[in-house]
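Allow me, if you will, to draw on your knowledge of protein folds for a short while. I have a record of one protein: its chain in single-letter code and its fold written as discrete structure tokens. The full record is reproduced below for your convenience:
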Amino acid sequence: MRLTPRKTLAALALAQAFAPASFAAPLVTLDRNGAWVAIEAYGPNIVHVTIAADKAEVLKGPGYGILPKNADNSAFRHSSGASASAGGDTFTSSGMTLNVNPAPAPRVPSQGEKYFAPSLASVGLQVKNARGEQVLSMSGWEMAPHTVNGEKTYQVGASFAAPRDEHYYGMGQNQESLSGLDLRGRVLDCKHWYDAPAGETVCVPFMVSSKGYGIVWDNPSSTRFIAGVNGKTAFQSQVGERVSFFVITGNTPDELYTGYARLTGKTPIPPKSAFGLIQSKARYDSQQEVLRVARTYRQKQYPLDIMVVDWFYWTRMGQMDINPAEFPDPDGMNKQLHDMGMQSIISIWPRYETSGRYFNELDAKGYLLKDKDGKSVDGLPFRADRTGGLIDATNPKARQWFWEKSRDNILSHGFDYPWLDETEPDLVPDGFFYSIGSGDRYHNLFPLLHVEGVAENMRAWKPNKRVLILSRAAYLGSQRTGALFWSSDIHPTWEALARQIPTGLNMTASGIALWGNDIGGWQWLPQTTTATKAPLLDPSDAREVVGQNHDYPELMTRWFQYGTFTPTLRIHGDRKQADIWSFGKGAEAVMARWDRLRYQLIPYIYSQAKFTHDSGAPFMRPLWMDFAHDPNVADIGTEYMFGPAFLVAPVTEQGQVEKDVYLPAGSDWYDFWTKEKLTGGRWVKVAAPIDRIPVFVKAGSVVPIGADVQSTATRQSIAEVQVYPGKDGEFKLYDDDGVSYDYEKGKSTLTTLRWNEGSGKLTASGGDAGLAKSLPGLVKVIGKP
């Protein structure tokens, strides 16, 4: 792409206007025989390491997604040379110690080194935790020159020692595993890839180690993560002029996530409706259908919070209108939903057909993804469902244009929240150009900028209404946008269901706590099946929807049971009907009970949202987060903790009526259904008839149960407080108005429910005085009459 001097200056100004904010000067910049190393801190347990051959590169500060305002070097002291603990330069705080090796002394190269001498000067470093134990050792770095998209650049990377007993987690959403969670021994392509064979991959380059540290890899280009292969763990990014990464240390996993939140932003508390049932379908073809489904939920008294209007409510892609033939009165439709205590979400896409009303305007203004000749890219030649130009979310003016059209043309008709679909983006940017540079260099950046642009404008538009956005992809910092993330357009199969459990656990381990998936699978539902076992639910009264796919009602039910214990519960899919009652009376009866259970758990779940907001840690948690002392949990990706109390083991095999479940050591466990008490540290065989999946409660747990409500629009009282004895325990019960940002001003209640095992009493302190008064009549101690 050739730019005139005037255009070059304009492009530079635009890029600078949207570049990451200015940052504090590094703690120190070191010269290692021509390799420059900059060290910067973000508090006592976070260091930023930047390495480059060009000093100017290490002085540029962090990349997108990082919050430079939180840089703080004050906790560290620096010693060098003979005064350093291991030679070189040492940086010490109460939370960690970083040592950068000295430059190697000059020596005569060996015969082999004369021919294979590295072009880069050697840089090595070690990190110790607060107890002085070494947790990380960087053994090498790379900058290999090559040309990408016409740009001379480098493949950049760093490698680290991989002890045999180290386990690796996170790195975003990868759907390749059916059960195992540990990434060790795997090579991941950390890039947004809608068409990944096992299901969409999403790159959130935050890796958490069992050794008590995390690495945030600061590069938005396509990245390869090599986890403990041949004794080495490495990151390699396709485009860059430097190596940049952050190391976070902590005594517990939650301390690592608190550090990640400091580095990239806190997860807001979403509106309470985000934790209720969200009903979607691909697609509702009229407002009459939307209202029919909503009214039926109320008539059947099945709780529901949000109705979703998916794509093709418009007249054509990118028209950003609402088809009056199908949705003649969207304002009236939304008023009726609101009157029923429901809210609405509507899908808004970032692509524009060339024959649509906005393409020429966007093209002329330079607001679309460009090719090397500066022409707007049309996705149609690549694939029929990718027709049109992609909005350039790296351009702040384009972002503002997109928001204003979304607001004025769509959201202003009474819709509560947007669904920003195709945020990978679907039109792959590799080989093309954004306003700030090549799509290869910024391959993974689109979802952060696109979603954050809308989120910031939504808050400015309605300052005291919480933002909620559905987003199909994420990047470093995406959790701060208030978005709910999901695993994209997965298949309606048992295999896809099995993949969701480890997929979701590594996604939440990447700092993206508010994750879910399409209950039932999104892709078109085949009308036949390959199942060999008799279905556990009768499909005969669901033929209109499932055809001869005899086991699909069973699959849908198992998926809904799993979804009840995930951060978000959203039914979606390309089926004739997609609501609870469309899969036969047997499936309906079971799902209706689980829908009611979900709402009874809203006080518990909403309190976990507060926990995540405060700590940065997820509440859908792999077992290793809470039972690191138990080596048996390191690779278990088939069960997980949901908050501090529940251990959940979803059923993912057709015809399965019992399941082997591991109960972690260090605690006793209660079967949630039978109340039987079992010791931990062993596998147990658990009954799993079609109306339940294995769920256990950790001894010492306090679980508030909410009263039955039809939606979170109704204030929900506490109907019961269940205590699972065996040790002292407490639960911090949080509540607020569920819709506004007043919680940021402290307008909320936090009631500590504390169980004393010795006295056998539950007490309440702080927060809700009414609850404390009524508590004696609400307590149910499991195992006692």
